[in-house]
Amino acid sequence: MSLLFVLIPESRRVIAPAFLNITIVIHSEDTVTNVMAVFDDIQQYDEEIACTSMDEAYLMHVQDPILIRGIGNLTVFGLSSRFQSEFPSALVSRVAPEEFEETMARINSVLKKSLPMNAKWLFCGCMCCCCTLGCSLWPVICLSKRTQHSLNKLLDWENNHLYNKIGLHWRLNKQRVDNSSITEYVLLVEFIPKIPIYKPD
Question: The pTM is what?
Fold first, then answer.
């Protein structure tokens, strides 16, 4: 940025950005203070704009999360008995297909052990719902929450063991099915944003 030097009486000098195209006449010390405060505000505003532009450019490079849906033939409270284990193309060069398949095998193993029992309790609870005023559904609700807790615990272990180290994060997410009020549980593989080391403090 080019600067304009304005000479004034009593050997005072004020530095103004040349692009402002202004002439400053100073009559007192208060005027000098006010002018310098204006220049400080302009400089701070330029720095904020630069930082905002860097943040926007940085956030544009974060990829959308990978969605893994359930494909099992049994679903209890939105949780399917099996998730699709096909290797997503977005993970090429990020993680080995063998590691991904092992993770999906462990997830589906937890579901295979838990979901059939949950379905049996759901059937019994529905049969006795009228006699128990809905209390017979409490066991299956507790079992479903325990299954979700087991999955979240497994995903935390997977993240700490491998995926967080390579910039990925797995989590179980509840969302609506397209254009309906039905909800389902899906797996999200999120890309962890890299720390911008070039960004000033």
Answer: 0.63
